[in-house]
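Tokens for YuiA family protein. Go.
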Amino acid sequence: MTATRTKEKCQYCGGKGYFQLLLGGSETCEECSGSGTSKKS
């Protein structure tokens, strides 16, 4: 894959691709679908 656009960290999950839940465990970030990068094109 040769994409010329730069991959920026997802601003919602901080580039992790998931959220750490307060009660334990984690949840996939809906904004970046777990990729950790923003979907700006």
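The chain has a mean pLDDT of 86.
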